[in-house]
Recover the amino acids of this structure.
């Protein structure tokens, strides 16, 4: 018998549907929780990508049209990881071409996103209350980000409701909409209140999530502190400060099977801390694939990222002319803001052999970049956790990161002391300026040129423990605390 039953609610899950790190977490945390004897099942919208790839499936419930929502049904399937999946099939809301959040034709968010994610929250609350048609009843509902934010509001008026928690992966995305949606979504009218779901005159999914949840987690301890301050609180710092004792920061782990340089099917050669020849082979293959000069000696810098203000890559693009004077190469994989895409493309075109850019989303190439480059550049303005700095370290690629959020919690700056202690694992800079980034890249290249230090640094990176087990145990403690059971 499982100790705890948890309904994990998410708007994306790898490998079925992914736009960012939330998918990686949703794909990897539930199996790690199940390994701790927690019966986790995942509720996810039935986008075409999910419907097509979900494997053998069975309809387990049909829902009438709840006021405000079209009819829907629940389909049960099992992920390759062994995690049971509850797919919320609602063709009117989810079965359409394009991304989970964005209309590819207009380039804007789907206009019915409040209804789409209102339904996800509504069904999560139904499954966590006496209304559930399933024989499996969770002890707790665990939501993620604004898309699940209304769960607690619906649970607050349901009979037999179980407690719920919410994990913040990114406070910058809040799901704020005009107040008239309150009626459309059939929310209790009294919830539209500053002590409720209202945020500066709008209704806010995330504010609702934070207000109604029994407990709040964030994806790194440092970010848990930062969001209670004015700089990174995104207007919610007051509420977060008032709930300070209910907030826990738990650092993400990574899927160490998916990201394993010894077995990764995307790599041209495999390698490990004890056998680094394979990494040199991957560098050569990457240089050749991306049209860079094939040269084992030149330091190769890389980026895999959403190209948005958050990620701070404008600083990297700004220092590109200075970088070009150094013997370095740069490869960029990313998509996002049109202006940044254009700068990256132009830089690559004007500097063939030295800078390469691939605009788009390419899972295989992201693995090849992590394996083939020497230094990963991640100058995020803010970063709730970040995953690529973990992947880099595991692939023997010290990351260069800004001192913020989860980056500060997971990368140890390389200096004489940390090298001596054997903890150095990358390069950390404070002060979000182009000059600071440039100076740190220069500092990293100096270490790259020192064979003894470089070997030690890469070894430290590759022998760190990034498995989900420790984080899963921390989530278990939160669950037990919320359920009032002893830890
Ligand atoms: P965020 O979720 O804020 O974008 P994370 O670092 O947590 O940042 O996670 C990003 C995830 O998305 C990583 O797994 C990263 O490799 C992946 N990723 C981002 N951009 C691309 C891209 N253009 N192609 C392939 N994978 C990408
Ligand atoms: C968000 C954050 C990122 C985090 C990811 C997974 O996308 O921007 O920092 O790693 O969620 O938790």
């Amino acid at each position: 018998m499982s100790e705890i039953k948890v309904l994990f609610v998410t708007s994306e899950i790898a490998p079925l549907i992914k736009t960012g790190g939330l998918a990686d977490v949703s794909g990897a945390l539930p199996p790690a929780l199940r390994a701790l004897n927690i019966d986790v099942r995942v509720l996810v919208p039935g986008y075409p990508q999910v419907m097509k790839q979900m494997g053998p499936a069975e309809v387990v419930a049909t829902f009438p049209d709840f006021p405000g929502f079209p009819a829907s049904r629940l389909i049960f399937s099992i992920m390759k990881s062994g995690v049971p999946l509850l797919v919320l099939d609602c063709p009117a809301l989810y079965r359409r071409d394009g991304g989970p959040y964005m209309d590819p034709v207009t380039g804007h968010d789907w206009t019915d996103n409040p209804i789409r994610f209102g339904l996800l929250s509504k069904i999560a609350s139904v499954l966590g209350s006496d209304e559930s048609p399933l024989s499996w009843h969770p002890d707790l509902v665990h939501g993620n980000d604004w898309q699940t934010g209304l769960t607690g509001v619906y649970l607050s008026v349901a009979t037999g409701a179980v407690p719920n928690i919410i994990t913040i992966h990114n406070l910058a995305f809040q799901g704020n909409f005009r107040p008239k949606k309150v009626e459309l979504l059939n929310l209790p009218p009294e919830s539209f209140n500053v002590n409720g779901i209202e945020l500066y005159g709008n209704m806010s999914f995330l504010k609702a999530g934070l207000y109604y949840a029994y407990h709040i987690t964030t994806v790194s301890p440092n970010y848990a502190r930062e969001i209670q301050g004015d700089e990174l609180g995104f207007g919610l710092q007051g509420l977060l400060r008032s709930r300070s004792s209910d907030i826990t920061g738990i650092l993400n782990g990574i899927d160490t099977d998916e990201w394993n340089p010894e077995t990764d099917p995307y790599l041209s050669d495999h390698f490990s801390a004890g056998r680094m020849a394979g990494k040199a082979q991957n560098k050569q293959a990457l240089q050749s694939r991306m049209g860079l000069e094939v040269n084992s000696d030149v330091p190769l810098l890389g980026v895999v990222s959403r190209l948005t203000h958050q990620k701070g890559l404008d600083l990297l693009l700004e220092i590109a002319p200075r970088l070009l004077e150094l013997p370095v190469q740069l490869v960029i994989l990313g998509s996002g803001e049109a202006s940044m895409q254009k700068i990256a493309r132009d830089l690559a075109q004007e500097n063939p052999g030295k800078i390469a850019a691939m605009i788009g989303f390419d899972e295989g190439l992201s693995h090849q970049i992590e394996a083939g480059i020497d230094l990963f550049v991640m100058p995020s303005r803010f970063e709730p956790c970040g995953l690529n700095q973990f992947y880099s370290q595991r692939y023997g690629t010290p990351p260069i990161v800004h001192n913020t959020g989860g980056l500060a919690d997971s990368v140890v700056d390389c200096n004489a002391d940390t090298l001596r202690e054997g903890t150095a694992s990358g390069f950390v800079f404070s002060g979000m300026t182009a000059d600071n980034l440039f100076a740190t890249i220069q500092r990293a290249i100096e270490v790259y040129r020192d064979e003894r230090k470089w070997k030690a640094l890469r070894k430290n990176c590759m022998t760190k423990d990034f498995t989900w087990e420790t984080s899963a145990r921390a989530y278990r403690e939160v669950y037990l605390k919320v359920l009032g059971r002893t830890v």
Q: What stands out?
A: The first strand starts at residue 4 and ends at 9. The chain is about 35% helix and 20% strand.
